[in-house]
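Our collaborator T.R. sent over the components below with a one-line note: 'Predict the complex.' Nothing else. No constraints on interfaces, no templates requested, no preferences about which chain binds where. So this is a plain run: every listed entity goes in together, and whatever single assembly comes back becomes the starting point for the next discussion.
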Amino acid sequence: MSNLFRMPSGGRVDRTRPLSFSFDGRVLTGFAGDTLASALIANGVHLVARSFKYHRPRGILSAGSEEPNALVHIDRGGGRSTPNLRATQIELYEGLCATSQNRWPSLTFDLGATADRLAPLFPAGFYYKTFMGPRLLGARTWTRLVEPVIRRSAGIGRAPIARDPDRYANRFAHCDVLVVGAGPAGLAAALAATEAGGCVLICDEQAEFGGSLLCEQHALVEGKNAQEWLADALAALRAHANVTLLPRTQAFGYFADNFLALAQSVTDHLPTPCDPALPRERLWQVRAKEVVLATGAIERPLVFANNDRPGIMLANAARSYVTRYGARPGTRAVVITAHDSAYAAANELNRAGVEIVLIADMRPNPAEEVVSEARRNGIRAEPGTTVLDTAGRLRVSDVTLGRVADDGRSDANEHLDVDLVLMSGGWTPSVHLFSQSRGTLKLVSSLGAYVPDRSVQRERSAGACRGIFALSQVMEDGYCAGAQAAEAAGFRRAREIRNVSIPSQTADPGVVVAPPIAGKAFVDFQNDVTVQDLALATREGFRSIEHVKRYTTTGMGTDQGKTSNVNALSIVSEQLGKTIADVGLTTFRMPYTPVTFGALAGMSRATLFDPVRTTPTHEWAAEHGAAFENVGLWKRAHYFPRESEDMHAALARECRTVRASVGIFDASTLGKIEIVGSDAAQFLDRMYVNAWSTLAPGRCRYGIMLNEAGFVFDDGVVGRLAPDRFHVTTTTGGAARVLAFMEDYLQTEWPDLDVWLTSVTDQWAVIAVQGPRAREVIAPFLSGIALDALPHMGVQQGSICGVECRLFRVSFTGELGFEINVPADYGGAVWEELIPAIEQLGGCAYGTQTMHVLRAEKGYLIVGQDTDGTVTVADLGLDWTVGKAKRDFVGKRSLALPDLARAGRRQLVGLLTADATTQLEEGAQITEGPNPPAGTPALGYVTSSYRSEALRRPIALGLVTDGRRQIGNRLFVAMPEGGAAVDLVAPVFFDPAGERLRA
Amino acid sequence: MLLIHCPYCGARPEIEFRYGGEAHIARPSDPSALSDGQWTEFLFLRSNRKGVHAERWRHTHGCGRFFNALRDTVTDKFVTSYKIGDPRPVPDEERR
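Returned assembly:
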């Protein structure tokens, strides 16, 4: 038996296209055009979920994205599994497979529901009180046993674990007018803006455009039936080349300067498998000249005891199920309302064959017309009547009603057997996006809700989202907003603009809380927050609405309190004895509805997450078995293991080979800046501590750059190619930073200098050939370079292997060394020409780890590893680099500040473990004694630590208080096994005289 | 995302730019003539203004040029932008 509650005709579902689907394994049928919620209702299914905290049976409350209860898990197979989707938004497709959440063993019999009876144990602030309370059971028992149980029994869906198999797309768009929401106001706005000639983008969260018009069976719009008008309006928009229509697209964020984020669902409504060429979702980032917000309004629930049973729903949601989907949500209904719009719903349901037993209007004096119209339709309507309680375990079966007495109290005087309770507490305009745009809100007491007040960005609201509800006025407001937006975007005025104002005669929304309350009266359904919880929070001293929200969790969760926020505000204001306006509002944050991480990440994942920079020899290194390491975005060859070698064996061999014969190393990642111009030397004099004006062309110098505060910022070798041309190198990681630093001074402090800075990092490949036999390797390949005349720290231009080159004689190993700069495109070819010559001499390629060991043996520092932004040239023992005669350079004045000039600063020293076997941890603290008590300040820390092949023992560098004076002393390094004794030595372990460099 | 007006390229999204701190703080031409106090004031002290703030920006992922802009630190709205070396404009807010 299926579709017992489906009406024989009516609605927008396609009865010629039945679809089969399953819910908790039960196979059911619906029609194309159904949502999962409407198909379940047509099958008489109302129990669809268990609540977050108390595991109470819950049904379908709404018919839209505001749904707090009916959250289900959808499994599309192949790892496509999504929790917490709103059944009211899931479009039905053939084979859809949905399951309920947060229940065990089943939805009808859930052991977790004992929590409902134990409710006094779970008051407001339960987590704060419990997780921060005294650990009577002991910390281990708590974190291992108790906490996981609590965490598992509370909560909603389970996050998928498998890798997301889908693709997500991303698109940027610009338009004259962006219209958010395609209900009557949004469509009218889009039509008006289009008429004016603007490029229009209109989006709506639903599959079908039309908003509330989709539920209007009888209304007339501009003399046409609403459905006919809608079809014509959509045809008119589609016929325009300048209009983009985006259904299934949620505008979820409103950012600065009219920048909005839209999430478009592309394939989730299609049966699986769907076209693999399609992304699952697409993120639109739209920059709009003008925005029209036509985001509608959300009906408010009423707060009364046991107001959360399946079968209790919003009055106008029930109306949509009947008129839009042709599905009756019940057979016998009571309507409880504080607002006129429930009467229209009651009349519509009555026409559809749902027996309306009673309209209980909590207002003592509702408008005469609405009451008499209901009575003319044969419906009993009782003003001044309220609901006191409901009964029914898995579905509402009985309501208790009472007359509202003058003192606000009421006594039970009537019981009704029903299977449906419709409620309406009035409407809350959806001001979420407006509020995100930084616009200010104002409270309209006739609505009992906030509406937009002052705009901050170029936007305007139209229709129900600004408190205008009558259809004809909504349309007028929409046209007006669209025409104004187009005019503001620079188009002609297309139609007369008549401003619509919020009607002041709207009936008072009355009390939202029905007194007195015996059972749980839910304010926030999704988070199981009751009136009693809010009262407890205010009794415990919470005053700010933001604090009450966090303490009780009201307004949190996947629905972000769309149905609950205004009710919570009014209850808290009553508790505090303040007006709603004085209590204020919680902040509206993006996203409006949940957005997948996939949509936000788009293509930026796996290898596309970040760019990868490879050097010209990358392919050769990969072919030769290199292990790579990431250095910033660079992939660098870390070491080159041979056959069975592990990392240590490979390093030992590479280090020995370089010191004994020759090694070849790709240093292309070095930052390179070409500095040219008649003032180039003067500019460098000002930027570096060193003196450059005195450097002869054909020579290089090791340069150090400080920041203005006097601390070491970067270093590198600078070669003078010509009087007006320097080839500057920077650290690999500092390349962009150093160029920006130089540009800053050049553009803003010394714009008069004739200097041009060009990044050439990617233009030059750098091949380092290092070792006693380096000269033998490269000599045969050179032309135009007098190699024998090239001194240490010299540079010459010529060619190698027939390719233009800048040959630097420099060393970062302590051996005779050359750095061959060739145009990057030739880097791989030159490297491969040199390899046989290297191998002929017993040499090898080496990686960054060997480079590190060799430089540390020589005490060559790495800025950012052996320095930390608080280290001066003097701390490093590099005072000799400073051009003493220079009047000024960046950072010079700071060197004379008391703190930089004082004695007792941390200085770079060498560290040798006393046992000659322990390798220190980089970053480990250095102390005076082996086992310092807690609170002992460290004397410094280890900055670099390696096993030296040349010394056949571990070596390390570190920054130590008054380090150079302490050389010869023994200190201790905190290691996991305890304090390791170290002897302080000068920071040069190998060839201190530097004879090998000059060989 | 903010739209920032580069005086050389026009309006561009903020991800193309890099902030450069408060504007109109010239580096002293002879730092050695300054006392320690005057020098550290130049180095570290900034106005941290609430309201219209003159600040440096660089169109890093565009023309690469530095320029100055007036931005209201309360509303995060740019008032105007202008070239390095030009005097700080007086916005309407300050004329009143």
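Summary for T.R.: The two ends of chain A are 96 Å apart (CA to CA).
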